[in-house]
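Sample entry follows:

:::
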Amino acid sequence: MDNQTTEQPAQSDQQNVVSEPTTLAQPTTEQVATQEKPTVDFQSLIPDNFKDDKSLSNFNNMEDLLKSYKHAQSLVGADKIAIPNKHATDEDWNEVYKKLGTPATPDDYKYSFKDDAVDANSLKSFNQAAHKLGLLPKQAEGIINYYNEINNTQSIDQENNAAEISKNTEAELKKEFGSNYGKRLDQAKRLATSTLGEEFLNNTLLKDGSRLGDNLDIVKAFSSLADKLSEDEIIKGDADYQTVKDIESEIKTLTQEGSPYWEKGHPNHNKNVDEVFKLRQLLTDGK
């Protein structure tokens, strides 16, 4: 019994192996986070013989470079026009205009409107300016049509305004001249036409929009002058008009002493009285 001893069981090698960490274990999350991805300077990958090319200086990755290359390839074979920079000369821009379709000379501009739609001299001057600016024929015609529309609108407005003023002038003169309106207007017109010319009277516009020949003050001025020159053949014309002197002379004759005008029993008494009344009415209306 004394020789019996109790031996402690030895730990197995297998247990020792299990307790040792294995080199095949996966890295923990903390280990992955601490690892930094390597950074690459894309410009350093460009071969030395291309590094001075400014067109490559803006690329920082391969994706952008490939996109640019693909876009450039899509333009191969297409008509391209280089846009001049701020240092470009007039000759540089003229080359661009030619490629876009500007005529070779100002005389080569062709339009769809009729030749008489625009004054020939004005059109020639416009073509020279359009060619200098490099305008395309379509652009040039568009500008011409635009200003034609403005001018037409203004002409219509002027005509309407002049017609309204002429109407008002006529009403005022009829009110002032009375039964002598036709006579005095005709005399004034004859004098004004012989003095200034019909074209000048009809085509000269005053500030108020009236034609010179329709202006109330002008007509009254020439009518007044025509009265003073009533014996002039230019004023009398072919019309059978009586002047103020003619009327006064006829009244004097009809009312002279011993005439039927003063004798109620005379067969021509009423006739003479009526005639004198009409003559005096003409004088009153004409003043």
Notes: The longest helix spans residues 137-177. The two ends are 177 Å apart (CA to CA). Residues 200 and 212 are 8 Å apart (CA to CA). The chain is about 55% helix and 0% strand.
